[in-house]
Design a protein that fits this description.
The chain has nine helices and 14 strands. It is an alpha/beta fold. The strands form two sheets. An eight-stranded mixed β-sheet has the order 8-9-10-7-11-12-13-14, covered by helices on one side. InterPro entries: Gfo/Idh/MocA-like_OxRdtase_N (IPR000683), Gfo/Idh/MocA_domain (IPR050984), GFO_IDH_MocA-like_dom (IPR055170), NAD(P)-bd_dom_sf (IPR036291).
Length: 324
Protein backbone atom coordinates (compact mmCIF):
# COMPACT_ATOMS: atom_id res chain seq x y z
CA UNK A 1 0.00 0.00 0.00
CA UNK A 2 1.52 3.31 -1.13
CA UNK A 3 0.85 6.20 1.26
CA UNK A 4 0.35 9.55 -0.50
CA UNK A 5 0.66 13.12 0.61
CA UNK A 6 -0.53 16.04 -1.50
CA UNK A 7 1.29 19.34 -2.01
CA UNK A 8 -1.46 21.86 -2.72
CA UNK A 9 -5.08 21.88 -1.57
CA UNK A 10 -6.96 23.22 -4.60
CA UNK A 11 -9.61 21.74 -6.90
CA UNK A 12 -7.32 19.30 -8.70
CA UNK A 13 -6.15 17.95 -5.33
CA UNK A 14 -9.80 17.41 -4.37
CA UNK A 15 -10.39 15.30 -7.47
CA UNK A 16 -7.31 13.25 -6.59
CA UNK A 17 -8.49 12.79 -2.99
CA UNK A 18 -11.91 11.62 -4.19
CA UNK A 19 -10.65 9.20 -6.83
CA UNK A 20 -7.92 7.54 -4.76
CA UNK A 21 -10.67 5.96 -2.63
CA UNK A 22 -11.32 3.57 -5.54
CA UNK A 23 -7.70 2.38 -5.64
CA UNK A 24 -6.65 -0.75 -3.73
CA UNK A 25 -2.88 -0.21 -3.75
CA UNK A 26 -2.74 3.41 -2.55
CA UNK A 27 -4.15 5.61 0.18
CA UNK A 28 -4.09 9.33 0.92
CA UNK A 29 -2.90 10.15 4.43
CA UNK A 30 -1.70 13.77 4.39
CA UNK A 31 -2.00 17.16 2.74
CA UNK A 32 0.18 20.28 2.88
CA UNK A 33 -0.73 23.86 2.10
CA UNK A 34 1.03 27.14 2.76
CA UNK A 35 -2.13 27.92 4.75
CA UNK A 36 -2.54 25.64 7.76
CA UNK A 37 -6.23 26.55 7.80
CA UNK A 38 -6.67 25.30 4.22
CA UNK A 39 -4.71 22.13 5.00
CA UNK A 40 -6.89 21.39 8.03
CA UNK A 41 -10.09 22.05 6.06
CA UNK A 42 -8.92 19.67 3.32
CA UNK A 43 -7.89 17.11 5.94
CA UNK A 44 -11.32 17.22 7.56
CA UNK A 45 -13.14 17.14 4.22
CA UNK A 46 -11.42 13.91 3.15
CA UNK A 47 -10.86 12.37 6.60
CA UNK A 48 -7.06 12.36 6.35
CA UNK A 49 -4.68 11.69 9.23
CA UNK A 50 -2.27 14.60 8.84
CA UNK A 51 -2.36 18.26 7.81
CA UNK A 52 0.81 20.32 7.34
CA UNK A 53 1.22 24.07 7.08
CA UNK A 54 4.42 23.78 5.05
CA UNK A 55 5.57 21.62 2.16
CA UNK A 56 8.89 21.03 3.90
CA UNK A 57 7.12 19.42 6.86
CA UNK A 58 5.19 17.07 4.56
CA UNK A 59 8.18 15.84 2.55
CA UNK A 60 10.15 15.36 5.80
CA UNK A 61 7.39 13.15 7.21
CA UNK A 62 8.21 9.42 7.27
CA UNK A 63 4.54 8.47 7.09
CA UNK A 64 4.26 9.07 3.33
CA UNK A 65 5.91 7.21 0.46
CA UNK A 66 4.84 9.41 -2.46
CA UNK A 67 3.85 13.00 -3.15
CA UNK A 68 1.21 14.24 -5.56
CA UNK A 69 2.22 17.73 -6.72
CA UNK A 70 -0.96 19.73 -7.31
CA UNK A 71 0.33 23.30 -7.43
CA UNK A 72 0.38 25.76 -10.40
CA UNK A 73 2.62 24.92 -13.36
CA UNK A 74 5.48 27.23 -12.44
CA UNK A 75 5.93 25.50 -9.05
CA UNK A 76 6.06 21.94 -10.38
CA UNK A 77 9.84 21.79 -10.65
CA UNK A 78 10.47 23.32 -7.21
CA UNK A 79 8.01 21.07 -5.41
CA UNK A 80 9.05 17.95 -7.31
CA UNK A 81 12.75 18.54 -6.57
CA UNK A 82 11.95 19.15 -2.88
CA UNK A 83 10.04 15.87 -2.70
CA UNK A 84 12.64 13.81 -4.57
CA UNK A 85 15.46 15.10 -2.38
CA UNK A 86 13.53 13.86 0.64
CA UNK A 87 13.28 10.39 -0.92
CA UNK A 88 9.65 10.58 -1.98
CA UNK A 89 8.31 9.21 -5.24
CA UNK A 90 6.50 11.94 -7.17
CA UNK A 91 3.34 12.00 -9.24
CA UNK A 92 3.35 15.53 -10.67
CA UNK A 93 0.30 17.12 -12.25
CA UNK A 94 0.52 17.96 -15.95
CA UNK A 95 2.43 19.60 -17.47
CA UNK A 96 5.32 18.04 -15.59
CA UNK A 97 7.43 21.10 -16.30
CA UNK A 98 7.12 24.43 -18.08
CA UNK A 99 9.92 23.52 -20.50
CA UNK A 100 12.03 20.57 -21.59
CA UNK A 101 15.14 21.77 -19.78
CA UNK A 102 13.32 21.74 -16.45
CA UNK A 103 11.77 18.35 -17.18
CA UNK A 104 15.19 16.84 -17.96
CA UNK A 105 16.58 18.19 -14.67
CA UNK A 106 13.65 16.72 -12.77
CA UNK A 107 14.09 13.28 -14.32
CA UNK A 108 17.85 13.41 -13.67
CA UNK A 109 17.18 14.17 -9.99
CA UNK A 110 14.71 11.28 -9.78
CA UNK A 111 17.37 8.97 -11.18
CA UNK A 112 19.95 10.28 -8.68
CA UNK A 113 17.59 9.69 -5.80
CA UNK A 114 16.43 6.30 -7.15
CA UNK A 115 12.83 7.51 -7.04
CA UNK A 116 9.94 7.27 -9.51
CA UNK A 117 8.84 10.52 -11.14
CA UNK A 118 5.79 10.43 -13.40
CA UNK A 119 3.67 13.08 -15.10
CA UNK A 120 0.02 12.85 -14.06
CA UNK A 121 -1.42 12.89 -17.57
CA UNK A 122 -4.51 10.93 -16.62
CA UNK A 123 -5.85 10.59 -20.19
CA UNK A 124 -3.14 8.08 -21.04
CA UNK A 125 -4.44 5.65 -18.38
CA UNK A 126 -8.18 5.71 -19.11
CA UNK A 127 -9.82 2.45 -20.23
CA UNK A 128 -11.06 4.16 -23.40
CA UNK A 129 -7.54 5.33 -24.25
CA UNK A 130 -6.21 1.79 -23.74
CA UNK A 131 -8.92 0.52 -26.06
CA UNK A 132 -8.06 3.21 -28.63
CA UNK A 133 -4.41 2.09 -28.68
CA UNK A 134 -5.48 -1.54 -29.11
CA UNK A 135 -7.90 -0.67 -31.91
CA UNK A 136 -5.24 1.26 -33.82
CA UNK A 137 -2.76 -1.59 -33.39
CA UNK A 138 -5.13 -4.40 -34.36
CA UNK A 139 -7.39 -2.95 -37.07
CA UNK A 140 -6.40 -2.09 -40.60
CA UNK A 141 -8.20 1.15 -41.44
CA UNK A 142 -5.76 1.92 -44.22
CA UNK A 143 -3.55 5.00 -44.32
CA UNK A 144 -4.07 7.66 -41.65
CA UNK A 145 -5.12 10.76 -43.57
CA UNK A 146 -5.75 13.34 -40.85
CA UNK A 147 -5.76 13.98 -37.10
CA UNK A 148 -7.96 16.74 -35.69
CA UNK A 149 -7.87 17.43 -31.96
CA UNK A 150 -9.74 20.31 -30.29
CA UNK A 151 -10.08 21.31 -26.63
CA UNK A 152 -11.57 24.60 -25.57
CA UNK A 153 -13.80 26.22 -22.95
CA UNK A 154 -14.89 29.75 -22.22
CA UNK A 155 -13.44 30.04 -18.73
CA UNK A 156 -15.34 33.25 -18.07
CA UNK A 157 -14.57 34.80 -14.69
CA UNK A 158 -11.38 32.72 -14.43
CA UNK A 159 -9.91 34.85 -17.22
CA UNK A 160 -9.39 37.89 -15.01
CA UNK A 161 -5.99 39.57 -15.22
CA UNK A 162 -5.25 38.46 -11.65
CA UNK A 163 -6.36 34.84 -12.13
CA UNK A 164 -4.05 31.86 -12.71
CA UNK A 165 -5.14 31.09 -16.28
CA UNK A 166 -3.83 34.35 -17.82
CA UNK A 167 -0.96 35.02 -15.42
CA UNK A 168 2.45 34.76 -17.15
CA UNK A 169 4.18 34.49 -13.76
CA UNK A 170 2.21 31.26 -13.21
CA UNK A 171 2.90 29.91 -16.74
CA UNK A 172 -0.67 30.60 -17.79
CA UNK A 173 -2.27 30.27 -21.19
CA UNK A 174 -4.18 27.75 -23.28
CA UNK A 175 -1.21 25.59 -24.30
CA UNK A 176 0.03 24.54 -20.88
CA UNK A 177 -3.45 24.37 -19.37
CA UNK A 178 -5.35 22.56 -22.14
CA UNK A 179 -3.11 22.15 -25.18
CA UNK A 180 -0.91 19.64 -23.38
CA UNK A 181 -3.79 17.19 -23.89
CA UNK A 182 -3.96 17.93 -27.62
CA UNK A 183 -0.22 17.42 -27.97
CA UNK A 184 -0.38 14.20 -25.96
CA UNK A 185 -3.18 12.82 -28.14
CA UNK A 186 -1.35 13.72 -31.35
CA UNK A 187 1.82 11.95 -30.20
CA UNK A 188 -0.20 8.95 -28.97
CA UNK A 189 -1.83 8.27 -32.35
CA UNK A 190 0.76 9.65 -34.80
CA UNK A 191 2.53 6.90 -36.71
CA UNK A 192 5.43 9.11 -37.79
CA UNK A 193 7.47 12.12 -36.63
CA UNK A 194 6.24 15.64 -37.32
CA UNK A 195 7.59 17.07 -40.57
CA UNK A 196 6.43 20.67 -40.11
CA UNK A 197 3.79 22.82 -38.43
CA UNK A 198 2.55 26.41 -38.15
CA UNK A 199 0.78 28.20 -35.31
CA UNK A 200 -1.83 30.97 -35.36
CA UNK A 201 -2.12 32.47 -31.86
CA UNK A 202 -4.54 34.85 -30.17
CA UNK A 203 -2.94 36.55 -27.18
CA UNK A 204 -4.44 37.92 -23.97
CA UNK A 205 -3.53 41.41 -22.78
CA UNK A 206 -1.22 39.73 -20.25
CA UNK A 207 0.86 38.27 -23.10
CA UNK A 208 -0.09 34.60 -22.73
CA UNK A 209 -2.00 32.58 -25.34
CA UNK A 210 -5.80 32.63 -25.23
CA UNK A 211 -6.26 30.47 -28.31
CA UNK A 212 -3.94 28.46 -30.56
CA UNK A 213 -4.64 26.94 -33.97
CA UNK A 214 -1.85 24.59 -35.02
CA UNK A 215 -1.67 22.95 -38.44
CA UNK A 216 0.99 20.58 -39.71
CA UNK A 217 1.88 17.28 -41.29
CA UNK A 218 3.59 14.07 -40.32
CA UNK A 219 6.71 12.79 -42.02
CA UNK A 220 5.18 9.74 -43.68
CA UNK A 221 4.37 8.66 -47.23
CA UNK A 222 0.88 10.17 -47.20
CA UNK A 223 1.91 13.35 -45.32
CA UNK A 224 -0.84 12.91 -42.69
CA UNK A 225 -2.34 16.32 -41.90
CA UNK A 226 -3.04 17.39 -38.32
CA UNK A 227 -4.89 20.25 -36.66
CA UNK A 228 -4.62 21.02 -32.95
CA UNK A 229 -6.80 23.76 -31.48
CA UNK A 230 -6.95 24.83 -27.85
CA UNK A 231 -8.70 27.80 -26.26
CA UNK A 232 -9.55 29.19 -22.84
CA UNK A 233 -11.85 31.90 -24.24
CA UNK A 234 -14.36 29.84 -26.24
CA UNK A 235 -15.97 26.42 -26.40
CA UNK A 236 -14.69 24.09 -29.13
CA UNK A 237 -15.90 20.70 -30.38
CA UNK A 238 -13.72 18.98 -27.77
CA UNK A 239 -13.01 15.77 -29.63
CA UNK A 240 -10.26 13.89 -31.42
CA UNK A 241 -11.09 12.77 -34.96
CA UNK A 242 -8.85 10.29 -36.79
CA UNK A 243 -9.67 9.94 -40.47
CA UNK A 244 -8.35 6.87 -42.31
CA UNK A 245 -8.69 5.54 -45.83
CA UNK A 246 -11.28 3.02 -44.64
CA UNK A 247 -12.89 4.53 -41.61
CA UNK A 248 -13.13 7.19 -38.95
CA UNK A 249 -12.43 7.03 -35.21
CA UNK A 250 -13.90 9.76 -33.01
CA UNK A 251 -13.03 10.24 -29.33
CA UNK A 252 -15.51 12.66 -27.71
CA UNK A 253 -14.15 14.66 -24.75
CA UNK A 254 -10.87 12.92 -25.50
CA UNK A 255 -9.00 14.13 -22.39
CA UNK A 256 -11.52 12.48 -20.03
CA UNK A 257 -13.17 10.12 -22.48
CA UNK A 258 -15.49 7.23 -21.68
CA UNK A 259 -16.48 6.60 -25.31
CA UNK A 260 -14.91 5.77 -28.67
CA UNK A 261 -16.94 5.90 -31.90
CA UNK A 262 -15.64 3.66 -34.67
CA UNK A 263 -17.36 4.14 -38.03
CA UNK A 264 -20.43 5.56 -36.24
CA UNK A 265 -20.60 2.66 -33.73
CA UNK A 266 -20.09 3.78 -30.09
CA UNK A 267 -18.16 1.78 -27.51
CA UNK A 268 -18.42 2.85 -23.85
CA UNK A 269 -15.80 2.57 -21.09
CA UNK A 270 -17.17 4.16 -17.88
CA UNK A 271 -14.83 5.29 -15.11
CA UNK A 272 -14.91 3.71 -11.67
CA UNK A 273 -15.00 7.21 -10.16
CA UNK A 274 -14.02 10.21 -12.30
CA UNK A 275 -10.83 8.99 -14.00
CA UNK A 276 -7.82 9.83 -11.84
CA UNK A 277 -8.02 6.39 -10.22
CA UNK A 278 -6.28 4.71 -13.18
CA UNK A 279 -3.13 6.85 -13.16
CA UNK A 280 -2.89 6.56 -9.36
CA UNK A 281 -3.18 2.79 -9.56
CA UNK A 282 -0.56 2.51 -12.31
CA UNK A 283 1.86 4.83 -10.51
CA UNK A 284 1.51 2.87 -7.26
CA UNK A 285 2.02 -0.40 -9.14
CA UNK A 286 5.25 0.94 -10.60
CA UNK A 287 6.53 1.77 -7.10
CA UNK A 288 5.55 -1.66 -5.78
CA UNK A 289 7.34 -3.28 -8.73
CA UNK A 290 10.37 -1.05 -8.16
CA UNK A 291 10.01 0.47 -11.64
CA UNK A 292 11.67 3.85 -12.07
CA UNK A 293 9.89 4.52 -15.38
CA UNK A 294 6.17 3.91 -15.80
CA UNK A 295 5.48 1.92 -18.99
CA UNK A 296 2.33 3.90 -19.88
CA UNK A 297 3.51 7.45 -19.10
CA UNK A 298 7.24 7.08 -19.52
CA UNK A 299 9.90 9.73 -19.12
CA UNK A 300 10.45 9.52 -22.87
CA UNK A 301 6.79 10.29 -23.60
CA UNK A 302 6.80 13.27 -21.25
CA UNK A 303 9.96 14.63 -22.90
CA UNK A 304 8.38 14.31 -26.36
CA UNK A 305 5.31 16.24 -25.18
CA UNK A 306 7.17 19.06 -23.45
CA UNK A 307 9.66 19.35 -26.32
CA UNK A 308 6.83 19.85 -28.82
CA UNK A 309 5.19 22.41 -26.51
CA UNK A 310 8.52 24.27 -26.36
CA UNK A 311 8.60 24.30 -30.17
CA UNK A 312 5.05 25.65 -30.31
CA UNK A 313 5.90 28.44 -27.85
CA UNK A 314 9.04 29.24 -29.83
CA UNK A 315 6.92 29.66 -32.97
CA UNK A 316 4.76 32.30 -31.26
CA UNK A 317 7.56 33.91 -29.22
CA UNK A 318 6.03 33.09 -25.83
CA UNK A 319 8.63 33.13 -23.05
CA UNK A 320 7.52 33.34 -19.41
CA UNK A 321 9.13 36.04 -17.23
CA UNK A 322 10.83 33.50 -14.95
CA UNK A 323 12.46 31.81 -17.98
CA UNK A 324 14.30 34.95 -19.10
Amino acid sequence: MIRFGIIGAGNIARKFASDITAVDNATLVAVASRSMEKAEQFCNEFDLDYAFGSYQDLVSFDGVDAIYVATPHNFHKEHTMLSLRHKKHVLCEKPLAVNAGDAAEMFAEAQRQNMLLMEALWTRFLPATTHLKNILAQHDFGLLQSIDVSFGFDMGDRLSATGRILNPQLAGGSLLDLGVYNVSMLLLVANAPIRSFEVKPVFADTGVDLHLHITGELDNSQSTQFVLECAVDQALSNEAVLTFEHGTVIVPNFWSTTRIIINDEPFDFPHRVSGFEYEIESFANSILRQELNNPIMSQEETMKIVTLMDAIREKIGLVYPFEQ
